[in-house]
Design goal:
mainly alpha; 3 domains
Length: 473
């Protein structure tokens, strides 16, 4: 059986290939599917970037535009408005796909499809607008809604790690600099290093979300000329139209200046905070992986989970490894909007379109996944206090000669107890050797940080805190 690959060469030759004998079974298994959606992402984030949401939002924006234009005096009837409202959900996706194939224009394909089920409203759908009225404004709505999905998830991770830090506020553990044994710290203090970065991310994501504006009603090159013509040169009505539609879409402000599109610097700002979050998650999960090797701390390990097909004793930190893997992808995505913003010619070029379909969606999907996974990790972290203390004992600098050069056990404490020179302090040794006496102000720092910085950030998200993450994979 021959199947078309759908590829066209430079000479217009249609390329065909024979189907693989493996290409059998359900149709969806014969095509590449992004693992971000098929394997990892939450249903809510996958829907946020779905065609269904996009095209329903387009229709809602056309309705907003018509309602505002009618209220400002354009000859649009209530019957036309009602017809549009009635058919917001009535999308013939097959017809839209056929129209796009014919017209080579996705927005006009959906204008025709909407008009087909709204014959009375057909003349006023998309009146005075350009494609970016629905395209860019929908993107901004989706970005805003994407942030609204991410923010409570980030807050829950902070909440879980704050509980963890408080639980182990004064448990001594060996600190490391350069991944070499250093002064003692506490498990809680180390967790606060993670928390501080996450708190910075929460601030940044909130800022990026709140600074998003609507593109609004700006016309083909951003001059609003078509709308000025519709309102017979009335500048006030054009400004009011812009304001009304912006409010209807749930935004407080619109960008005053746009070209045909909103500035692609906005995408840079959006993906910058997500890439920065990726760096934070990567650092946290790398620490967890290293601590797992030191037998101090482990991520959750399911009862029937297999660490290795050949080594049944292994307990691989696979969730942390997944976070690192996906966070690495998230960090690289910032290069797409940076390069796109740098090559937007004058009022716009279309070489941003295909790129943005991939980079914006993947950034939010990836951020969503790593936060859900990190929440699952932080809800089930296991600390091994005896191993923490053993690291302190084994790596005592004073006994390094015995351990490193003679291959013997660390017997420093026994040597002190048996040496008459130390007789005056033999009764105080247990107190003197208590690791808690070497952690400085770590416990006090942890409690101050949690009280003054971490916990107050969670106040807006209290109603969304009681969500537990279970991972299928």
């Amino acid at each position: 059986m021959d199947v078309s690959s759908g590829l066209s060469g430079h000479l217009g030759v249609r390329v065909t290939c024979s189907a693989s004998p493996l290409a059998q079974g359900p149709e969806e298994m014969q095509r590449y599917r992004s693992p971000l959606v098929s394997r990892y992402a939450s249903r809510e984030m996958a829907f946020n970037f779905s065609d269904s949401k996009k095209f329903h939002t387009w229709r809602q924006l056309w309705l907003f535009l018509a309602q505002a234009q009618r209220s400002l005096g354009l000859p649009i009837t209530e019957e036309q408005i009602q017809e549009m409202e009635t058919n917001l959900e009535n999308i013939d996706f097959k017809m839209a796909a056929e129209e796009e194939k014919r017209l080579r224009h996705d927005v006009m394909a959906h204008v025709h499809t909407f008009a087909h089920c709204c014959p009375r409203a057909a003349p006023i759908i998309h009146l005075g607008a350009t494609s970016c009225y629905v395209g860019d404004n929908t993107d901004l709505i989706v970005l805003r809604d994407g942030f609204d999905i991410i923010l409570p998830k980030l807050a829950r991770v902070i909440s879980r790690l704050a509980d963890f830090a408080e639980r182990y506020v004064d448990l001594p553990t060996l600190g490391f600099t350069h991944y070499q044994p250093a002064q003692l710290t506490t498990v809680g203090k180390r967790a606060c290093l993670w928390l501080q970065d996450l708190c910075m991310d929460l601030h940044n994501v909130e800022r990026a979300r709140n600074e998003l504006r609507f593109r609004g009603v700006k016309g083909t090159t951003g001059t609003q000329a078509s709308f000025l013509q519709l309102f017979d040169g009335d500048h006030d009505k054009v400004e009011e139209l812009d304001r009304m539609v912006t409010t209807m879409a749930g935004f407080k402000r619109a960008y005053i200046i746009t070209g045909q599109t909103y500035s692609r610097k906005v995408d840079v700002e959006v993906l910058s905070v997500l890439a920065s979050l990726g760096a934070t998650v990567h650092k946290i999960c790398t620490d967890i992986r290293l601590l797992a090797n030191l037998k101090e701390l482990e991520e959750p390990f399911e009862k029937e989970q297999i660490g290795s097909s050949a080594m049944p004793y292994k307990r691989n930190p696979m969730r942390s490894e997944r976070c690192c893997s996906l966070a690495r992808h998230l960090m690289t995505l910032i290069m797409n909007p940076l390069q796109t913003a740098s090559v937007q010619w004058f009022e716009r070029t279309l070489d941003d379109s295909a790129n943005r379909r991939v980079s914006l969606a993947e950034a939010f999907l990836t951020a969503d996944i790593v936060l859900s996974t990190l929440q699952n990790i932080s809800e089930g972290l296991v600390v091994y206090p005896k191993d923490c203390h053993e690291r302190i004992r084994v790596l005592s600098q004073q006994a390094a000669v015995v351990v490193k050069q003679e291959g013997g056990d660390n017997d420093l404490i026994n040597r002190i107890r048996s040496d008459s020179y130390f007789a005056p302090i033999h009764t105080q040794l247990d107190q003197l050797l208590d690791p808690k006496s070497f952690v400085g102000r770590a416990p006090q720092q942890v409690m101050k940080f949690l009280k003054e910085e971490a916990i107050p950030l969670l106040t807006p998200y209290q109603s969304k805190m009681d969500v537990k993450i279970e991972l299928d994979l």
